[in-house]
Amino acid sequence: MAAESAPPLFAEAIIFLSATVVAVPIAKRLGLGSVVGYLAAGAAIGPHGLQLLGSGEDVLHVAELGVVLLLFVIGLELDPQKLWRMKRDIFGLGTAQVMLTGFCLFGFAQLAGMGQSAALVAGFGLALSSTAFALQILQERGQLSSEYGQRAFGILLLQDIAIVPLLAMVAILAPGEGPSTTAEIVQEVLIVLSAVAAVILTGRYLISPVFLLLAATRAREVMLSAALLVALGSAGIMHTVGLSMALGAFLAGVLLAESSFRHTLEADIEPFRSLLMGLFFVAVGMSLDFSLVMANWAYIAGGVMVVMVVKGLFLWGLSRGTGSSNSDAMRIAVTLPQGGEFAFVLFTAAVVNSIFDYETANLLNAIVILTMLLTPVACLGLDVLATRAKARGVENPSIETFDEATPTVLVVGFGRFGMVVAQILTSEGLEITAIDNRPDRIAYARKQGYRVYYGDATRADVLEAAGAGDAALVAMCIENDKVMAQSIEMIREDFPKALIFCRATDRAHAMDLTKQGVDFQIRETFESSVVFGRAALEALGTPLDRIDQIEEDVRYRDEQRLAEQLSGGMYAGSDKLHRVTPRKTAEAANPDAAAE
């Protein structure tokens, strides 16, 4: 009996996974980051390397979904108010960077012998940085939420928007092509505005109620399907009208940033995003033609140097001129000097429209890929300089490491207990994030003005998305003892730096939590019972100093009893429940008077 043939793309998948499993850990061990590992893996297995796989163009079409999902996840982390606060960085700093860098590189391209139209496309194509590459670096370093990380993201977002007019520019510059009529332009604008409005209205008024309904079913796979549908559906709508798919997904993410399901959506999509992003960079690496690089090494080396230096200088100068510190400006300059994935799209469009030939596009693509490879080296070099400066005891404010802390408090469980805890923490001005798995409780809390998100406390990816990795303290306020125990074990393993404070449902649960080694635990009824007892004694005429004495004694005996129960079982120390608090003598109450 003949063996059945392997499924389609089975062998290619094995090769892809094997190459990444080898290359990525080596790159990370060298301090270059996972992206360089993916690029190196693609270059090794591609048609210009070991020839284990064919052209990377077919793979790239699928892998571009990774960029789409990346922008969706980034959108989830930015609510509309925060995006509005970034408008200066997006439309001011971002626009200035693209325009100044584009025209400067246009001049260099003309000096290199390109015609005016070809040089214009090449200059502005190389002015765009890689959203996927830069954000991957920022996320790996935990710097996306930092001040310089947000400014870098604003620049990247403007560049994603800029691809639309740049593609229009390519069509206008095409030989034999003239600008569209006024009626056609108006029609295109109306179609684009309609698509944007459709995404906004759907995200604003329809998606959250649908997710609320799906959450009540507790079917995780349905929630996952819905998350992918939202991300890819919004991208598809924008692609249909000629806009960037990544921009559509980003817009959908921003609209869901205030949704209760934001962190669960992010956690569900993250594995798909990571895998497709890896595939994207492998496909980019596969397109690197070594023979072309060797034949034109001087031209390409010069292009790489010009692109990285020009972009770096403009990024540094513009960042400094718009309020960034010297250290932040330097970090922006070494994070965004590379060419971007949208350059491949722009150069391909230029070939289709006969602005320049296929070989020129390949040379420009090689420059883009090599700038990507060298960017982590530039980041590493800045870290080395900072480390050496610190080793010499030099305080250099212009060079700092990428390590920054953003401590927060994560409240898990937002019932009556969790809400009071949150009120106390926010009264000090602390920033909290709260998650719960009951849609009705989330809806009630939001009506009270709290931002609570849907999430499962036993899923490390959900807690990571909610900020457990940066949290200084995790407040466990859930009622289910088994779920809490499972969550504590997972937090200890995955987020060891966070303090764990727990609500104990009863005395037995308090003993279990003590054995688990949590940093603090308290029985949910103990403090309220003490306050209740104090009020009763006061109503019966007991003096306040006697009430204080009784409370102090009761708390002391309770601690002693709990210690005995941990070693002797639940019924140990029962004799401590029935003692009458001894009255303090006058001498004990006033030792100075007794001494006289």
UniProtKB/TrEMBL annotation:
<dbReference type="GO" id="GO:0012505">
    <property type="term" value="C:endomembrane system"/>
</dbReference>
<dbReference type="GO" id="GO:1902600">
    <property type="term" value="P:proton transmembrane transport"/>
</dbReference>
<dbReference type="GO" id="GO:0015297">
    <property type="term" value="F:antiporter activity"/>
</dbReference>
<feature type="transmembrane region" description="Helical">
    <location>
        <begin position="185"/>
        <end position="207"/>
    </location>
</feature>
<comment type="similarity">
    <text>Belongs to the monovalent cation:proton antiporter 2 (CPA2) transporter (TC 2.A.37) family.</text>
</comment>
<feature type="transmembrane region" description="Helical">
    <location>
        <begin position="297"/>
        <end position="318"/>
    </location>
</feature>
<keyword id="KW-0633">Potassium transport</keyword>
<keyword id="KW-0472">Membrane</keyword>
<dbReference type="InterPro" id="IPR003148">
    <property type="entry name" value="RCK_N"/>
</dbReference>
<feature type="transmembrane region" description="Helical">
    <location>
        <begin position="6"/>
        <end position="27"/>
    </location>
</feature>
<dbReference type="InterPro" id="IPR038770">
    <property type="entry name" value="Na+/solute_symporter_sf"/>
</dbReference>
<feature type="compositionally biased region" description="Low complexity">
    <location>
        <begin position="587"/>
        <end position="596"/>
    </location>
</feature>
<dbReference type="InterPro" id="IPR006153">
    <property type="entry name" value="Cation/H_exchanger_TM"/>
</dbReference>
<dbReference type="InterPro" id="IPR004771">
    <property type="entry name" value="K/H_exchanger"/>
</dbReference>
<dbReference type="InterPro" id="IPR006036">
    <property type="entry name" value="K_uptake_TrkA"/>
</dbReference>
<keyword id="KW-0813">Transport</keyword>
<keyword id="KW-1133">Transmembrane helix</keyword>
<keyword id="KW-0406">Ion transport</keyword>
<feature type="transmembrane region" description="Helical">
    <location>
        <begin position="90"/>
        <end position="112"/>
    </location>
</feature>
<keyword id="KW-0630">Potassium</keyword>
<feature type="transmembrane region" description="Helical">
    <location>
        <begin position="34"/>
        <end position="53"/>
    </location>
</feature>
<feature type="transmembrane region" description="Helical">
    <location>
        <begin position="243"/>
        <end position="261"/>
    </location>
</feature>
<feature type="transmembrane region" description="Helical">
    <location>
        <begin position="362"/>
        <end position="382"/>
    </location>
</feature>
<keyword id="KW-0050">Antiport</keyword>
<dbReference type="GO" id="GO:0005886">
    <property type="term" value="C:plasma membrane"/>
</dbReference>
<feature type="region of interest" description="Disordered">
    <location>
        <begin position="573"/>
        <end position="596"/>
    </location>
</feature>
<dbReference type="Pfam" id="PF00999">
    <property type="entry name" value="Na_H_Exchanger"/>
</dbReference>
<feature type="transmembrane region" description="Helical">
    <location>
        <begin position="273"/>
        <end position="291"/>
    </location>
</feature>
<dbReference type="GO" id="GO:0015079">
    <property type="term" value="F:potassium ion transmembrane transporter activity"/>
</dbReference>
<keyword id="KW-0812">Transmembrane</keyword>
<dbReference type="InterPro" id="IPR036291">
    <property type="entry name" value="NAD(P)-bd_dom_sf"/>
</dbReference>
<feature type="transmembrane region" description="Helical">
    <location>
        <begin position="150"/>
        <end position="173"/>
    </location>
</feature>
<keyword id="KW-1003">Cell membrane</keyword>
<feature type="transmembrane region" description="Helical">
    <location>
        <begin position="339"/>
        <end position="356"/>
    </location>
</feature>
<feature type="domain" description="RCK N-terminal">
    <location>
        <begin position="406"/>
        <end position="522"/>
    </location>
</feature>
<feature type="transmembrane region" description="Helical">
    <location>
        <begin position="59"/>
        <end position="78"/>
    </location>
</feature>
<protein>
    <submittedName>
        <fullName>Transporter, monovalent cation:proton antiporter-2 (CPA2) family</fullName>
    </submittedName>
</protein>
<feature type="transmembrane region" description="Helical">
    <location>
        <begin position="118"/>
        <end position="138"/>
    </location>
</feature>
<dbReference type="Pfam" id="PF02254">
    <property type="entry name" value="TrkA_N"/>
</dbReference>
